Automatic annotation (TrEMBL):
Biased composition (Basic residues): 16-33, 87-118
Keywords: Coiled coil
Protein name as it appears in the record: Uncharacterized protein
Positions of the UniProt region annotated as Disordered: 1-129
Biased composition (Acidic residues): 1-12, 58-67
Biased composition (Low complexity): 37-57
Taxonomic lineage: Eukaryota, Viridiplantae, Streptophyta, Embryophyta, Tracheophyta
Key word Coiled coil present: yes
Source superkingdom: Eukaryota
Coiled-coil residue spans: 221-249
Keyword Coiled coil (UniProt): yes
Length: 294
């Protein structure tokens, strides 16, 4: 086996030497032919070789361009898929929001319907004058002072509560109940909507019919009239108190300003005595901006 391996390796080396000799011979012949060729042929071969190189380069560049184009296309398709996925998620989110809003609207509608039914039941229990919303007008919390006489009469006669015994918070809560009864027209008597109009209408009826009321009725009416006048006086008294409070506030502010001016004058004189005329002039400017500097 070893002898056969050595013989085969020797034959291979001999073959290689023969091929190298043949290759050297071919190169020598080519060099000789190239030297014998004319300059035009050499230039033509150079141009052909350069053309072949440029062709190879152009083909290589073309391959690179095509590869880059494929990459761009892949990136573009990937971005389109991502954008499509974002749009799908956004639509899904909007659809869920719409469903939630519809459910919320339906829930509120049912609650409102249920609340209206309960209000109608309550109105039937109270024996209201009417169940029409806003029949006698709509009042709000800002109308607390303008509706003071009616509110006071309602507290005293319906709720059996003295207004003067209520705290500010309790008074606001009671007025909310008064406001609700007014707006839903559920007062037990029409006089609580407008006390002046109620008394005026009662007097007109009495004058028109020419009937004399009994002593009891006159006493009741006189009591209501007296209460109405007391409420009007109370309203005027409150207004006067507010004006006086405003005056006191203004007077307190004026007194404070006068004290501040006196302090500044003392400071100005002190600065003059020290010879600090610039600081004294600044204080004088604060006291009287239009006065000439001393």
């Amino acid at each position: 086996m070893e002898e056969e391996g050595s013989e085969s390796s020797g034959e291979d080396s001999g073959e290689r030497r023969k091929r190298r000799r043949k290759e050297k011979e071919r190169r020598r012949r080519r060099r000789s032919r190239s030297r014998s060729e004319s300059s035009g042929s050499s230039s033509e071969s150079e141009s052909e070789s350069s053309y072949s190189r440029s062709s190879a380069e152009s083909e290589s560049e073309s391959d690179l361009d095509s590869e880059e184009e494929r990459r761009r296309q892949r990136r573009k398709r990937r971005k389109e898929r991502e954008e499509e996925e974002r749009r799908r998620r956004r639509k899904e989110k909007e659809r869920r929001k719409r469903k939630e809003k519809e459910k919320e609207r339906e829930r509120r509608r049912k609650e409102k319907k249920k609340r209206r039914k309960e209000e109608k039941k309550d109105l039937g229990k109270k024996g209201a004058v009417t169940n029409s919303w806003g029949k006698y007008g709509i009042i709000r919390e800002v109308d607390m002072w303008s509706k003071r006489p009616e509110f006071t009469a309602w507290l005293s006669e319906v709720k059996q509560v003295n207004l003067e015994a209520l705290s500010n918070w309790e008074e606001k809560q009671m007025f909310k109940a008064f406001m609700e009864d007014h707006n839903t027209a559920t007062f037990p008597s029409k006089k609580y909507y407008n006390l002046d109009a109620y008394h005026r209408k009662a007097m007109e009826k009495e004058t028109k019919k020419g009937l004399k009321t009994s002593v009891t009725e006159r006493t009741i009416f006189n009591d209501e009239e007296q209460r109405r006048l007391e409420l009007l006086k109370e309203r005027e008294r409150r207004k006067e108190e507010e004006v006086e409070a405003l005056k006191r506030s203004m007077q307190a502010g004026l007194a404070q300003d006068m004290k501040e001016q006196a302090r500044l004058r003392e400071e100005m004189n002190y600065q003059y005595r020290l010879g600090n005329f610039q600081a004294a002039a600044a204080i004088q400017k604060r006291l009287d901006p239009d006065a000439p500097l001393q």
